[in-house]
Amino acid sequence: MFFRFFYIFLMTISFAVKGICQNYLTKTGFIGFYSKTPLEDIKAENNQVYAVLDPVSHHIAFAVLLKGFIFTKELMQEHFNENYVESDKFPKATFSGICSGEMDFSKEGTYQVVIKGDLTLHGVTKAMETTAQLEVKKDHINGTSVFKLKPEDFNISIPSIVRDKITSEITVKVKIEWVQTK
Amino acid sequence: MGANKIIKMKIRKTFFSLILILSGFHLLAQDSLLKSLNDSISAVPNNGYVTGTFKALYIVNMKTIEAPAAGALNVEIQHRFGTINTGAYNLWGLDFATLRLGLDYGITDRLSVGIGRSSYLETFDGYLKYKLLRQSESSMPVSVGLLGTSSYFTNHAPLGDNANISGSSRFNYTLQMLIARKFNSHFSLELTPTFIHYNMVTSPDQNNVFALCGGARMKISKRMAITAEYDYLFPNQLVSPLFPPSPPRTNSLSFGWDIETGGHVFQLVFTNSQSMIESQYIGQTAGTWGKGYIYFGFNISRNFNLKAHNKPKA
């Protein structure tokens, strides 16, 4: 009988702990991607990135609707959705991973961390690793990262006729301002 | 002794349970983090407008619901060779050419304007197109556009050397309602009720005529599509023979093959219409497919961005 109570007690504790240590959340994160070649300058930005950070487990997750990427050229935006990422079939890109390195979410400061996890895009999930900077403030955290992706890794084929207009590695910039959930 | 053993076992059991609970909680936390994001992002009402109903501004001859984005200029070259039934001597029509050069410009994402010049009767044309309704993923099933076209032919003597045609008689007007739906990523359909006013007709033809045009596209790969178009002119409105003597009037039937590469769309077409302007291909198409009055040709379009397009479409 005692052990059964102990069991229930433990479960209560574990949920209570989760309750106390609130996550950091945003629905207005920024992701932009850029490709620069002598023939074509491609720029697409999205300000509706969903992102969450768990200060206890150091786990982070991102989700973004691909249709929310705004290009400077509207025709490119249409081609991006129709022909490249096929956003009708695969509307979202997601990332789920862990931050590692020295950081203390209870203390204000700037921390260089390594983020490792799985990126899912165009129906393909690929492990990736990048460095990032976390700036811990009183009740929010700013995160920034820059990394490169190869479209071919995500089964996004680029026709040979436009191959020279798109860099082989696309630069991705991420800028998130997480706010502690109440 | 016995009781001691039982307690030890119970402690061990509890210990393992504890580890199981904690590890289970850890996994749960990781999965639920992404899941909670996915759930909340899916809950956002998807009111985005459907894009890419058609690849180009023209199915073959008829205009699609598509328009250049605000600040974008489309340059259109439409070319038709002669009819295939002219035989080997004229290389099955390739010795002849009818050409239309056109410019289309997006004033806003909804309003566009176009001008063109066609070698068929030396005709100038201009149009305004406005997207009244835009198909969206959740609320609006179709896109509806209004299109007004006017044309002015400058050919000196289309009715023969002695006929003098006044300036106002050379104008024709077309009013169309473009009703289009993208059923899925592959199949799109457009129906276009059409009203045409001819300033000059030969008796007993009507000045005001009605037609129903329809077009469809079926994608065969990400960047290629097959298109078809039929323009049905309601009967007994235009019955007089065309001048110069030609086969009797008939409805326009066309097929195309769209190939898109970046900012270009290349369309290979087969049609029984020589002209590429509404009042002419709907009302003045002569000769049927069955008799070999088939024009081979192509449309080439190139998109230029004159202004950056920064604001979201939705």
- Taking all residues together, what is the mean pLDDT of chain A? 89
CATH topology value of chain A: Lipocalin
Strand portion of chain B: 35-45%
- How is the largest sheet of chain A built, in terms of strand order? 1-2-3-5-6-7-8-9
Report the count of strand segments of chain B.
12
Oligomer: heterodimer
- Helical stretch count of chain A? 2
- What's the shape of chain B? elongated
Tell me the number of structural domains of chain B: 2
Give an account of the 3D structure.
The complex is a heterodimer of chains A (182) and B (314). Chain A is α+β, with helices and mostly antiparallel strands and 182 residues long. Chain A has a single domain, classed as Beta Barrel (Lipocalin). Chain A is 16% helix and 51% strand. Chain A has two helices and nine strands; from the N terminus they run αββββαβββββ. The longest helix of chain A has 19 residues. Chain A is elongated and about 70 Å long. The two termini of chain A are 37 Å apart. About 3% of the residues of chain A have low confidence. Chain B is mostly beta strands. Chain B has a twelve-stranded antiparallel beta barrel. The longest helix of chain B has 41 residues. The model of chain B has no long low-confidence stretch (mean pLDDT 89). Classes of the chains: A alpha+beta (182), B mainly beta (314). At the A-B interface, helix 1, strand 2, strand 3, strand 4 and helix 2 of A face helix 1 of B.
Q: What are the defining features of this structure?
A:
heterodimer; A: 182 residues; alpha+beta; Lipocalin; eight-stranded antiparallel β-barrel; 2 helices; 51% strand; elongated; B: 314 residues; mainly beta; Porin; 2 domains; twelve-stranded antiparallel β-barrel
